[in-house]
Amino acid sequence: MDRNSIIGLGLIFGILITFAYINQPSKEEIEAAKIKQDSINLVRLQNDSTTLALVQAEKKEAVIAAKGIDSAAKQNAFGSFASFSEGKDDYTILENEELKLKIANKGGRIYQAELKNYKRSDGSPLVLFEGDDNDFSYGFATRDAKAISTKDLYFTPVPAADGKSITMQLKLGENQMVEHYIGFLENQNMVDFKINLIGMNDIIAPNNNFLDLSWKQNILQQEKTHEAEKNTTTIYYRYPNEDPDYISETKDLKEDIKTPLQWISYKQQYFNSSLIGSTNFENAALETKVDESKKYIKTLTSNIGLTFDHSDKQSYEMQFYFGPNHYKSLSKVGVGLEQVVPMGWGIFGWVNKLLTVNVFYFLGKYMSNFGIIILLLTLIVKTILFPLVYKSYKSSAKMRVLKPEMDEIKVKYGNDMAKLQQENMKLYRKAGVNPMGGCLPVVLQMPILVAMFQFFPSSFELRQQAFLWSSDLSSYDSIFNLGFEIPFYGDHVSLFTLLMTVSTLVYTMYNNQMTGVTGQMKIISYLMPVMFLGFFNNYASGLTYYYFLSNLFTIGQQLIIRQFVDDKALHAQIQEHKKKPVTKSKFQQKLEDMAKKRGFDPNK
Hints:
Blueprint: H1 3-23, H2 27-78, E1 91-95, E2 99-104, E3 109-119, E4 125-130, E5 134-141, E6 147-149, E7 156-159, E8 165-173, E9 176-184, E10 190-198, E11 210-218, H3 226-230, E12 234-238, E13 245-246, E14 253-257, E15 261-267, E16 271-290, E17 298-307, E18 313-324, H4 327-331, H5 346-364, H6 370-413, H7 417-431, H8 439-455, E19 480-486, E20 490-493, H9 495-515, H10 519-536, H11 541-564, H12 567-578, H13 586-597
Helix pairs in contact: 5-6, 5-8, 6-7, 6-8, 6-11, 6-12, 9-10, 9-11
C-alpha cells in the first residue's frame, strides 16, 4: 500500500469518528428513550396477561360445561344411584387364622382372597383371586328404566369393632339402603355374605322379579403343572338333597340349569371357591372356558337368579368357602361339598372313602412323612389282599401242574378246537381245578388299584410333601430334565415311574414263568408296562411310588407263598381228586352250557 492510500484511509476514519461524536444522543435523549421502551414493555405484558386470563377462563368454562354434561350423563345412567357412581377406590382388610380378605368399597365385594397357610408352587402367597380376576356383582332394573349393577357403585364401609366383619352401605335415603355384610364364620375357611335390601321396592321396577347375580372368576395357576391343573379345574354344582354334578373338565361348555341349585363351586386341582345359598339359586347359567394364552387356567362364570318379592325388607344369606379340597374338612361344611374331591364312582369311591382317606387321616395325626404313610398304606392294603393273592397263586400252580397233561391234549386234538376245549374241560372237572381261579382274585383286586389311581392325583394331603428325590408327591418327580419334549412321554425323567415300570416287568416275567404264558400274550404282557412308562411319567409321584411298592410287596408275597406250596404235593392232591366222583360247580356247569350252545357236548 502506497503513501497516498494510507493518507486516504486515515482521512475516512477521522471523518467517521467526527460524525459519530457529533450525532451521539444527549443524556436527556437517552433517558427519554428508556422511558419510552419501558412503557412499550408494560403494554405488552398487560396484553399477554389479558390473553392468559382469557385462555384460563375459557378452559374453566369448558371444564364446568364438561362436568355439567358428565353429571347429566351419570344422572341419566344411574338415576337415584348417580351420587354413588363416583368415588375413590379404597380397601379394608379382614383376616383370621386361615384367610386374609381384601374388601373393596367399589362394588362392596371381596376383592382378594389369600389362604395364609399355603403357598403356590413357586413359593409365593397363595391368592385364589385378586381384583378384576373375580367379578362378583348383581344387577336390577329401576322404576325409571335404569340398569343398575353394584360393580359400578361405591359403597361406604362400616367395619365392626372386632375387625372380623364389615358392612358395606349405599344409603339412598332415611329408609332406603343397600347393604352387604361380610364376616367370618366359626369354620375358619367360611365367610358369611349377606345382601340386605331396605326400601328398595320403591326403586326396583315392579316387573323385576330377580336380582341377576354374576360371578366370574379367572382361575390363577397355583401348582407346578399347568396342564394337570387345567384338566382338574371346572364348576361343580348341587341340586338340593342330591349328589353333586359337574361340567366336563376337558372342553369348553355352557349349561343352562332350570332346576334350583343349593351351591356352586369353582373347583381347582387342590383348592376351591364355593358359593352356598341359604335359599336356592334359580335359573343358573354356568360356563367354563380355557384360557388359550395360559395367563389363567380357565375362566369360570355363573349367572344366577335371586328371587325378589318386592317386600320392604329383603335379605339374601350366602356363605363362601375359600380353602383346600381336603375331604374331611369339606365334609364338616355339611352340604356335600366334599364330593368335589374326585374319589371315583361306585365301588372305587367307596374304597377311597372307607379305606384310603381314613388311613391317611389317622396316620397323618401321628407322623408327617407321607412317603412313610404311603408305605404303611401299601402294607395294610397288601395284608388285606393276601388271601386273594394266595388263592390266585395256588390256582396258577394247579394250572402249572396240569400243563403237561394239557400239552398232551393239545398235541392230540390241536386241529380240532371244539374237541380240544371239550377235553380240557373234562380235565379241569376231574382235577377239581377252576381255570378262572387265578384271574378272579386279580379282578377282585382291581377296585383298589383303580381307587388309588383316582385318589393320589387329587389327594390334598400329598400337596408339596417331599419324599426322597421327589419335591412334591402330588406332582411328578424329575431326576433329569431333557430340555425337549418327547411325544407321549414328556420333557423329564421320573425315577419313580422308571422303578414302577421295572418292577412291573419283573413281576410280569415271574408271573409268565409260573403260568407258562407263551406267544402273542407273552409279548403283550411285556409291552403294557413299557406303554405305562409314558403314561405315568407326568402323573403324581405318590401314585407311581405306591404302584412300585405294591409290585414289590406282591413279588415278595408270591416268593413267600412259593415256599409253602409244593408242586409235587399239589400234583398228588390233584391225582387223588381225579379218583373222586365228579361234582360240577356252578361255574363249570355254566361253561358246559355255553359249550352246548356252540354245538358240542363236553360230557361225551
